[in-house]
Please model this.
Amino acid sequence: MPPDPAPAAVRRAVSPLDHRIEAVTGHDVDTLWAYHDRGVLDEPHAHLVVRHRELARAETGVTFYRVLLHRLANGEFPVDSALLARIDRTVDQLEEAATARDAAVRRVIAALEPIETAATTPAPGEKSLSTADQAALLAIAGGAKLHEHLLTGRMSVTTASGTRIPYAELQLLESAGLVSRDTSHPVHAGQPVALTDAGRAALFAARRPPTTHVPKPLARPGAWPSTPARRR
Model:
């Protein structure tokens, strides 16, 4: 198998599932990857990103062996037993890469379908976040602590980005179940504040632009992805 590319160089591969992911989330997949790395996504969307990254790596493997096979067969090398053996080996590797890719596609679909179902089923009593709440949750997502001033006794949240959030606003977010505090730490030393799963879901939904649901295309017989036939 080809070596994994450096993390900074890994980018999404174009796949037939990208349009479905972007339609249901309202974001392109590069943005979803960035949100995942910042810890903004709720568990279902984070799981989807992990599976999509696996698919991107699998697509890279298919491309690698396809390009290699083209190079071996384009007349650059003399036709001899060594070349024929290498072509045969590369075809086997390409088949294995395609099989791994197809398995990755199935895992992405399994992670995607519950999100598509939830997107067409509005949650009862769901309330939209205010702009101030969105800004506070986004700041807390990057890391935050609740501090108590030793002299004045006033409490406020300081985030990693330097944003200060009033204690009253923190209490409102806590009562809504959007954030939680680690009370095992004393307040004067700083209590870590983090988004709950509900907070991540609310923030992600609030930052998603309105989209029109795109129906899933019907699969044609023999259309990609399909399980490749074994070579004989």
